[in-house]
Amino acid sequence: MAVDTKKCVGCSDCVVACQTENNVPIGYCRDWVTEVTDGTYPQLEIEIRSERCNHCENAPCVRCCPTGASQFAEGGIVLVEHDRCIGCGACIASCPYDARYPHPDGYVDKCTFCIHRVDKGLKPACVSVCPTKCLYFGDLDDPNSDVSVVLKKRKWKTLIPEAGTRPQLYFLI
Amino acid sequence: MKEELIVSGRMNHLIDPQLHIWHWHIPLYLFLGGLAAGILFFAALYTILGKEKEYPTAVKIAPFITPIILVVGLMALFLDLNHKLYFWRLYTTIRLQSPMSWGAWTLMVVTPISVIWCALNIKEIFPNWKWKYEFIDELDAFFRKNLKTLSWVLLISSLILGVYTGILFSAFNARPLWNTSILGPLFLASGLSTGAAAILLMSKSHHERLAFARIDLMLIGIEMFLIIHMFMGFLASTQVHIDAASLFLGGPYTTPFWLFVVTLGLAVPALLETLELKGFKLPAMIAPILVLFGGIVFRFIIAYAGQVSRWLY
To answer: Does a structural domain hold residue B9?
Structure first.
């Protein structure tokens, strides 16, 4: 997925769409908006990012999971199989993005890129509702997918690549 | 001045504003696991070396507490799980990349051996003990015949248990404070040291006490060396690692760490043990109790401070 930080206005529609689509319990979120302001007043710059699990290629959460509940689905989406998860918290502690949370029902929960929608050929809920169309989703191995096309055209960055997880959430800058 | 201000809309319970997913259960378990590993290591070592007569407490008496502390530790681990009814999933897979997985399997080896070890030595506590069923006598004879093999298995698995308590933390690259491979040997040295301290507390033989005071002194020296190396490593690493070290060098964990762990838990018992070895008569309980106290505080501090340390982006 790619997030256009120049188009995102921080409306949090993605957050609400995700909570509704995935029945995220009240008080929790699988995606969130971060605003970073930097510079010296009055020369300030603001970057707005819609953030979620980075579905890392070298995912520490998958590596640390003692039961194999955290796993890669076909295509690279990182998923938690709820009835294999023992709720030990190892994956939560291992995520440098703090993208996971303990669900009140006991298991660990996180962004699934709405795999249930993607399997049907739909886009993730956050992508489909975004009013500024700042989210691009698709298969990175397919050179003609929305996300591959936009990553070829624009400059981008990933968050803390130095943590060594090879994150797959790209921020257009 | 150029400044950066980050505002996040995320406020997940136990994650924000600061990670607090692991509470008292994990450090308590790590302390008990390290302690059990230490006691069982010495029991196995002196059995292999054929010195059971020289070190009777280490080989025959001290291991009696290990099944109890291992079970208490396992109960703490169980209480820590959020999805408790699925705990058996740990034993449906072996995942070599996950320290928690092979730690769980190591416990599956160490805990039964600790029970067998107690059963073999039960006559030390109850001299008239008789097993009710014949097959237990047969098992008893079988393990006695293969005591050396059993000791080797115990020696190796207790070392793995001791190292694993530290590696559990260092496998998490998301928490810079934990992300140092020194934690493995450091927790092992600390576990062996607390094991030696527990033997010191229980031993009545002067010869055995002096031997374990010497061992403990050496282990404390190793711990000091590893702690200094850990900080040198952090300070020569990236900014997040420097920030992690600064939690202990002026940050909120400075006093608890340097006062309770290093001074009271390492330096003072080392001094007392040195004086004891030189022939001074001192209350024998103080040094080992301080070592055990330092061991448990050390694990609490590392577990809590590690969750504070993080990558910033």
So the answer is: no
Please report whether residue B262 resides in a domain.
yes
Fold topology of A2-172: Alpha-Beta Plaits (3.30.70)
Q: Closest Cα of chain A to B259: distance in Å? A: 28
**Interchain contact, A87 vs B86, CB within 8 Å:** yes
Using CA atoms, how far apart are residues B177 and B261, in angstroms rounded to an integer? 17
B2 CB-near residues (< 8 Å, 6+ apart): A38, A39, A40
**Helix/strand number for chain A, H first, E second:** 6, 10
pLDDT digits (tens, 9 = 90+) for A48-71: 999 999 999 999 999 999 999 999
> Domain holding B204: CATH number?
1.20.1630.10
Residue span of the structural domain in which B280 resides: 25-308
Tell me, what's the ipTM?
Answer: 0.90
B19: nearest CA partner in chain A: A93
Q: Which pLDDT tens digit goes with each residue over A123-161? A: 999 999 999 999 999 999 999 999 999 999 999 999 999
Residue B19 lies in a domain: no
The answer as to whether B304 is a domain residue is yes
**Are A85 and B8 inside 8 Å of each other by CB?**
no
Write the CA distances from B230 to A68, A133, B12, B109, B254, integer angstroms.
31, 48, 32, 31, 15
How many residues are recorded in chain B?
A: 313
